[in-house]
Model the fold of this input.
Amino acid sequence: MTRLCRHREPPGRIGQRIRPSVTYGVSVDDTGAPHLAPWQRTAAGAGLLAANGTVAPTVFAEMSALALETGAVNLGQGFPDEDGPREVLEAAREAISSGVNQYPPGPGMPVLREAIARHQRRWYDLEVDPVREVLVTAGATEALAAAILAFVDTGDEVVTFEPSYDAYAALVARAGGVHRTVPLRFPDWAPDHDELRAAVTDRTRVILLNSPHNPTGAVLDRATLELVVELAHRHDAIIVTDEVYEHLVFDGRHVPIATLPGAWQRTVSISSAGKTFNTTGWKIGWLTGPAHFVTAVLAVKQYLTFVNGAPFQPAIAAGLDLSHTYFADAAAALAAKRDVLVRGLDAAGFTTAVPRSGYFAVADAAPLGASDAAAFCRELPHRAGVVGVPVTAFVHPDRRDSVRTLVRFAFCKRREVLEEASARLASLSRRRGADARRP
Done:
């Protein structure tokens, strides 16, 4: 599938361009063709631009508002409700108390860049130069934004797997790129290799690879990773990864594509601390890769946030140096929470794809009579007191029919919250059974 995010300027001098309103409305040129401002193009890429040029709220904002309005258990957004490890929190307090509160160096504080390099060596046997091959960012999303803006020019193609994190489409559109997608299909979420080969062409500038995957919890297998490397070489593409769930794989270990033969020189690897250490509000992310790629991304990043999170950087450095036991226990605890939610969803009558990683489970609401996931999710807080998010929010409008009954639920919550949500969802099954028994 191709998402055309291209933007054509009307003919004539720059001073003659028709400028759209900064608040609403879509301008047209002399031929009547629509002219989208950059902010409108970004919203359109995310599927949030209305015909009159206004921007709709995200489904996450809508569902969170419903949770507050109804008192529902909010399993819509992926943020934990428990603090991270004591060592990390104490390190942040110490940094603040010690005066680490001013601008850090643009590429990141040396203590964190060195910890990231040690992390890559310790977990993946990757030798990374902390000075030239590591960049600290304001979370993984800024790293993704800076990378896309650094590498993608107007008309360049970016290939992603879909469903996908909703920022991808918006970022590609903002850069003026063309978004091509490869579908992952419920319930196994395995990509078709022929479809992947067809999507990557000589027009492809970036293959954006998210594994472990949001929103499905899938982990791409080695054969798929090897094919991505092969295609990147064949078509001279850059691989940009999103690996924020790298330490939250429940069966086996995460394999970064950068560790595969021939991949490092074409790969920018992105991760962050929020998911690993339950510090999503700190927004500390990073990328690693060949020095010329890191230099290119820094050239863009320095004009986005400039710098961020000075006292949190040494705290995350301390987290990255925690023992293997911490990381193993964090993944095991999250897997146990996954099992609680999956059992609850199955008991309520959903058909659930058991996730292999991450924060989320995707369930099919069709057995409960749903034909429209968005409508189902708007009704669910009132019917059962639980909030989920329709998977239609993670695909292009042209593909929404393929996921029309799928709902994403977060399990990165306290066990008692998940048990309460499961008990509430059980009412769906009881109601369905009662309806079936009516003459």
Remarks:
- The mean pLDDT is 93.
- Residues 324-348 form the longest helix (25 residues).
- The chain has two domains: 59-83+325-437, 86-321.
